[in-house]
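DM from R.C. (forwarded with permission)

"hey, sorry to bug you on a friday — could you get me a structure for this? deadline for the figure draft is monday and I only need the backbone to look sensible"
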Amino acid sequence: MMTQTAVSPNPEEILNTDFAKELVKQMRALDSYGLYDQWGPDKILDPFILTKERKREIPVVGDPDDVTMSRVKAFYNALSCLIEKERGLMAVPMINLSHEGFGRALITTGKLIVIDKTLRDVHRFGFPSLSKMKDEVDKLLSNAYKLMDEYPQVAEL
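My reply, with the result:
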């Protein structure tokens, strides 16, 4: 009897996806001092990866710093850019966060909200691995495209 095991993508393959490339662009755009110019994509995306060990080092209750908030914005900006690239409609991210790290991220195309994500504990924003981040992005984009296909007139307003 054969059992099937899930094959997780190679980190190099994930770094070559459109989303990873766009997220690296967004992070480089935030780098006003040119620090990321010498860094590779894996090092730039490393702060998005929160292993169990890294998560343990971050307090359960805390306020997000500016660097973490800019990472959240870069993540949703990258999603918006992919939607624009794929569908040819302007996608606009809107992020509203309290100083305590709670809020909401929306991405709209026209008058249609294609992504609506509640944000909690933003000071601990991240993913267990690049593979998990890719899975989350794929899920968000799939749902967004589905909504745009279902309501094209609203998305084009």
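R.C.: lifesaver. The CA atoms of residues 25 and 34 lie 13 Å apart.
me: no worries. Confidence is low (pLDDT under 50) at residues 1-7.
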